[in-house]
Amino acid sequence: MPADALRGQPFTKMHGLEPASDAGADFAMRVFNSDGSEVEHCGNGARCVARWLRDTGLTTSDRVTLSTAGTTLTTRLHANRRVSIAMGEPDFSPAAIPLEADAAADSHDLVVAGEPHAVGAVSMGNPHAVLRYPDADAAPLQRLGPLIEHHGRFPSGANVGFMTVRDRGGVRLRVWERGAGETAACGTAACAAVAVGRRCGLLDERVTVALDGGELVIEWAGPDNPLWMTGPTATVFHGTIAP
User: Fold this and answer.
1) Range of the domain at 66
2) Is the pTM of this model over 0.70?
3) Annotated catalytic sites, by residue?
4) What values do phi and psi take at 132, rounded to 5?
5) Do residues 189 and 151 both lie within one domain?
6) Which of the residues 5, 104, 115, 129 could staple to 158 if both were Cys, CB 3.0 to 4.6 A apart?
7) Rounded to an integer, what distance in angstroms lies between the CA atom of residue 202 and that of residue 166?
8) Is 122 helix (H, G, I), strand (E, B) or coil?
9) Per-block average pLDDT, block size 10, for the chain (243 residues)?
10) 33, 179 contact by CB (below 8 A)
11) What's the pLDDT score for residue 6?
């Protein structure tokens, strides 16, 4: 198995490219978790794919559009190997997430293992739950992450973010990723955290999100506008998958 830590290269997401069937896309991208489940899309992965397409000469454009199972993603490549991606507009409606709730809200009361928790819920093309903590590094991610991921009110499961708002332009975020567990970075989770923080009036339009794997810059002007994510890319290895 490619994700086997002993016999392969560990990863949280694997991306496959196919010819685009959508007229507005340059390539089609499929995304798989390390447990083999296929998911709607992956923002950080799309940024890396766009950079790889340019590095390998499969495109010469500074803009690459990728269609996925959940959406179409537009990327912009910068000279410093940073890549920006339009992540679409956050959707707080319960039907879109999906979440069992009567209406969209700043937070939803969720009972987890008998404990009440206030959870922000949003779709970034995939489902997200966001919890605010005074210190995200001390949050019980390993305990609460899987319980919220599989909570009955999230019929399709959920990615779970544990967020500390440092100031109006910065947050600390740890992520329990659906189908992958704790992960060093998750682009859609960073976007979801900022979207929830903006909805609650806690954050400005441009926010730096500090994850275990590095920093992402998220920009969102508010409703009826796409959310943009920018971050670095780097090639770490080349390899082949044995049949």
Assistant:
1) 13-88
2) yes
3) 42, 186
4) -95, 135
5) yes
6) 129
7) 10
8) strand
9) 55 85 89 83 88 94 90 91 94 98 98 97 96 98 98 98 99 96 93 98 99 97 96 86 72
10) yes
11) 46
